[in-house]
Design a protein that fits this description.
The protein contains four helices and 26 strands. By secondary structure, the protein is mainly beta. The longest helix has 14 residues. It folds into two domains: 208 residues, no CATH class; 171 residues, no CATH class. The strands form five sheets. Strands 3, 15, 16, 20, 22, 23 and 25 form a seven-stranded mixed β-sheet that branches. Strands 4, 5, 7, 9, 10, 12 and 14 form a seven-stranded mixed β-sheet that branches. Keywords: Signal. This is Copper amine oxidase.
Length: 395
Amino acid sequence: MMKSSILLGLIVAVFVQGAAAQTKIPADKITKILVSAKRGDVVVLDDFLTMDFPKISYDKTVVPGPQYIISDDPEYIRIPEAIAMQESVDPGAVRLYVYNVNGVKEPQKIPRKITAVIKNMGKENMHLRMLRYSSQKPSLNYFHIGKQGLYDYFTSYVENHVRTVKPGEVIAIDEQLEENVVLYDELVHGFYEFVVDQPGLISVLQTSPEKDGPNAFHEIDTIIPFSHVNAGRGIFPISNYKVTNKDIVDTKDGVSQLIVADGEDDPWITGTIGDRKEFAKNAGNYGVLYNTHIKWKSTDGKGLALITWNCRSADNQWCGGMGLTMEMFDQEGNKSVIQYPSNQLVTKAAPEAILLGVYKPDPTKDIQEINFTYSPPGASCLPTPLILVPIDLVK
């Protein structure tokens, strides 16, 4: 994890064109704040943050990826023994996002098990090869789980983990979920990518801690009806996007912002639910990866600071915090996976922002790129604006 900014040790001056007229914070104060902060730090920018910064127009193209399944409807599983999500998958790659809570409180609160299983629906042995694996201990700290879950997914690379499933056999996809005891209101968070070579039936179910998932699957005959709330559930043909800006960002034009996963400029992905193929949407595009490439130039010699903030904090009690994890790539393509913020669990509300990175102009290049992978952070409200602030660097 990068703990220092490339600006440290420099004397800088900052000039924010376009934003200065609509914000009260002095330019030299922005300079001081950004210079003293480390990458990932929460910074306080009084009277600066707004949703009115000009939006960066972009092209969004679908990148071939796995079949994508999400289980978040219902988020709170109120029935002690039930299937909360069930979808069929074809042979090939699968991404599965489990986001469910033990919500049993009638007639009393009881511990449960929430697990994901797969049944081999083919006529030959299925080989399940795990590619990426992220499994969190059940917790009441949803923000921590959301950040850590993405971090583990981005940093994981599973080798030689192949399991054989006989025709008709059911196995647990994540053996760790089989060991967990989930108390009332605790969140179960799993994020997986794997390959199968036979058709399969994937189910997320809740049962008693004493039962194993595969046996419970054969006993449970209740599939909870969907309600089209929370992020949703179902299977989706889109799992990855490539985002590129249409017009090159020029530092001389002032502050700008990239907005994805807002449901308007960037619509929610759609798919189907269950055997009847009823309409499904992922309200938040949670679990979708945005491979982002921002082309920029510095005709005035300035650099760029990339920041974000929790623009939804005033909406309701569930939007009071925001944390995320991103893959960041340097000019040589080297990857760093960083949890934001790095110096505390979440950012709360304006005037707080998170410094995601600082980019110095390269005088040998007319056009440069800022490259990162963004995925809407679980447990956080959306969108999370990605704001580019021009900064004047002076040695």
